[in-house]
Amino acid sequence: xxxKILVVDDEPxxxxxLKGRLEASQYEVITAKDGQEAIEKTGQEKxxxxxxxxxxPKIDGYMVASMLKSDEKTRDIPIVMLTARNLxxxxxxxxxxxxxxxxxxxxxxxxxxxMIPMLINQKKKEKEKREEAGAGARDxxxxxxxxxxxxxxxxxxxxxxxxFDEKDKD
Length: 170
Known about the structure:
52% of the residues lie in helices and 14% in strands. It contains 6 helices and 5 strands. α4 links the parallel β4 and β5. The termini are far apart.
């Protein structure tokens, strides 16, 4: 069964590009053009991953991510922020709202596509560990370490693609 990805962006050209690339990579793609629609479709469709713009009509991406992460039914869905906002405070706010990765526009679609399987598998493993432990806690130390490892892998990919300077790797 194909993994399902929700693409949330109000720019039709971005949605079209991502939809085409994701479908070519055998993902099922659903789309939303604003924050309210993103929340509704997440509840209806239960995607495996969400690619979310920040600057959206109705409800911004930060609030969408926060709302989804506070709901037990949707908290384990990995969220990738894909946005033109590139200030340090924007990145911090995105990660604090619940994103597992932050990709700046313009973006390299090959890098984004390379991240997706890692992010989906990471969140699945974290959820399974929580369920096995029976604790129901949102994060555990092991999950945090694994997330750090994935973030390092993503930075390494970006470094290879020339997106980070060496000084930014740590």
